[in-house]
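Lecture notes, part 5. Sequence design as translation. It can be helpful to think of inverse folding as translation between two languages: the language of shapes and the language of residues. The source text, in structure tokens, appears below.
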């Protein structure tokens, strides 16, 4: 498997500017500015406790910044309602959070919140895209971890996000499932020019998957560039 291999020359679609968050006297994220280009995979790497996931949660206001802001296609993201923002900037978490019921019901959930009903054909196409053909009627409790993560991806894609945030999307999976989900994400980015920001503690994964990486330490951006420049060969 190779990385997505874009050159990060597309339009800037997400631009945190001096982004920060303090909780009491503790600075969780401090003064981060960077650019995410259309169709690229940006990796956020760093040691445990470096602020990777905290930074990611600021990008769609799951947590509120206490300094700076984020521009989505040159619009301050505070102009969008939280619901609209989280449709535009979707997220897949480390451990899939699926609702009780079947796969189709989970995939339909997001669009239903804005009164859009996905047809059976729409569901089938989404599940085909994530490698789960014929899974619409399956109960989510009967799925493997890798299958559940693929359903999470399908549910996020159902909202037609402009950007997809991935928070350690393979860390809870066994090695075989991990490689399958990696390949799926890379193919989605390549085939649909999907823009992604992915948190990972796995530097080898960042080298395999990412066009550029941002290295965080203690909530600060330390280095930002190609994986070979930031992480070495």
């Amino acid at each position: 498997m190779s990385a997505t291999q874009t050159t990060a020359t597309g339009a800037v679609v997400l631009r945190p500017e001096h982004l920060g968050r303090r909780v009491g006297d503790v600075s969780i994220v401090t003064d981060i500015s960077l650019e995410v280009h259309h169709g690229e995979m940006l990796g956020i790497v760093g040691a445990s406790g470096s602020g990777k996931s905290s930074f990611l949660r600021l990008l769609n206001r799951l947590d509120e910044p206490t300094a700076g802001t984020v521009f989505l296609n040159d619009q301050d993201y505070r102009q969008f309602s939280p619901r609209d923002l989280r449709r535009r900037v979707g997220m897949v978490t480390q451990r899939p959070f699926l609702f009780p019921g079947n796969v189709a019901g989970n995939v339909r959930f997001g669009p239903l919140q804005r009164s859009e009903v996905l047809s059976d054909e729409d569901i089938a196409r989404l599940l085909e895209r994530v490698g789960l053909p014929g899974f619409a009627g399956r109960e989510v409790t009967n799925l493997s971890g890798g299958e559940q993560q693929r359903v999470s991806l399908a549910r996020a894609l159902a909202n037609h996000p402009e950007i997809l945030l991935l928070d350690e999307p393979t860390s809870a999976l066994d090695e075989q499932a991990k490689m399958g989900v990696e390949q799926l994400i890379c193919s989605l980015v390549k085939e649909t020019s999907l823009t992604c920001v992915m948190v990972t503690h796995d530097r080898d994964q960042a080298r395999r998957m990412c066009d550029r990486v941002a290295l965080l330490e203690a909530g600060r951006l330390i280095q930002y560039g190609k994986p070979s420049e930031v992480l070495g060969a």
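The translated text above is only one of many valid answers, since several sequences can fold into similar shapes. Residues 1-8 have pLDDT under 50 and may be disordered.
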